Amino acid sequence: xxxxxxxxxxxxxxxxxxxxxxxxxxxxxxxxxxxxxxxxxxxxxxxxxxxxxxxxxxxxxxxxxxxxxxxxxxxxxxxxxxxxxxxxxxxxxxxxxxxxxxxxxxxxxxxxxxxxxxxxxxxxxxxxxxxxxxxxxxxxxxxxxxxxxxxxxxxxxxxxxxxxxxxxxxxxxxxxxxxxxxxxxxxxxxxxxxxxxxxxxxxxxxxxxxxxxxxxxxxxxxxxxxxxx
Length: 229
Known about the structure:
The chain is an alpha/beta fold and 229 residues long. It is built from eight helices and twelve strands. Helix 4 (84-92) runs parallel beside helix 8 and helix 6 (157-168) crosses helix 7 (176-184).
């Protein structure tokens, strides 16, 4: 049974989320604050987390940062903050999705299932040919692992998905539209280029490739991104 971590300081919201998820046969771990969450994670397996942003003491952004130091499972922010800057900030910290309050139960559940499915695919046992090596990059779809110059990188599911798509399409420009549809499984809109850009920037930071002329992920302005052999 897959397990979902729910953290929201509004008990009625957290309880409602728990009900929706239990109805879908997920195991639910529920917290009304971020306190003790990291200790809980050290002793329990979690497949996905739903975090509220506006919480007392430790907010969702801070908790996401702490989680990403050790864990790669998908993180979905659930919040009333709707500004573009807020979304970009969340993605830059390692979040995989952003659902606004008030939310529709079927939409939230659909997003949860999509992220769990993606995470499960990349973490499941696949044939060994699902490995790609490009100029020091070694990425394995079956093990959901990526190494750069023999050093393992701690990637989120979305970051790994982006790298896998770029690597399997090596020597070809992957458009923003194509990348968004394949990674997020959603229709692409003009504003979504910012979402893609934030994740690419985060990948470059983890690859220590943030100079004016990146060595690995090349930007083709107005079109998309490319990894060359």
